[in-house]
Amino acid sequence: MPWLLSMTLVVSVIMAPAVLYLIWRYFQSAKIVFDQKWVRKIIPILLLSFYVFPICGLLDFFISGSVDVLKYFKPIVYWFWFGLVFTFQLATWVIIADIIKIIAGFFTEQRQALVRMYARAMLILLPVLLVFTAWKTYHQTTSIVIDNIELSVEGLPSALENFKIVHI
Questions:
Q1: 20 phi and psi, to 5 degrees?
Q2: Which of 67, 86, 135, 165 could join 60 in a cystine, given CB atoms 3.0 to 4.6 angstroms apart?
Q3: Angle at which helices 3-33 and 74-107 pack, to 10 degrees?
Q4: What is the Cα–Cα distance from 86 to 94, expressed in whole angstroms?
């Protein structure tokens, strides 16, 4: 199995508990807020769609015996890696919200109101983080940072004076 596919599968396995936790959390929240059953399936489908690339790579490898993941349709590959970042961003905030909900449960008698407020907050958090992560990912992968460092070297041959080295 090619190294790149192996590492993609390792990352997929590491990401799976967070995805499963988020699916469970969001399905519970959607049950409270939405009456339509089809709406409850949107978020699990979104989160599971991040796995299209590793599943295709694995199927391709088992069917053909070899695979070149670098030749895959780029949006599928990018969607997986974006999903990795988004999943852990979202999981972090959902866990923080869970802790706040547990603590708040000790100080309130209106548990149903707390549960409804939590469910709405979860459903607002998802699109906000989706947009934020998309913007941040785009911004961080398309901007270039240039650090100019001047180095003085004694005894440098004159042919190397004002020599520039670029490190990417």
A1: -65, -40
A2: 67
A3: 40
A4: 12
Report residue 65 as tokens.
């015996």
Query: What is the reported pTM?
Result: 0.79
- Distance between CA 159 and CA 161 in Å, rounded? 6
Q: How far apart are CA 153 and CA 75, in angstroms?
A: 46
Q: How far is CA 70 from CA 5, 53, 79, 114, in A?
A: 10, 11, 14, 47
Is residue 54 within 8 A of residue 80, CB to CB? The reply is yes
Cβ–Cβ < 8 Å for 57, 12: no
DSSP alpha helices (H): ranges in 108-142?
111-142
Question: What is the token pair recorded at 62?
Answer: 């088992």
Residue 128 is which amino acid?
V
CB 84 within 8 A of CB 50: yes
Rounded to whole angstroms, what are the CA distances from 33 to 113, 136, 167? Answer: 12, 29, 51
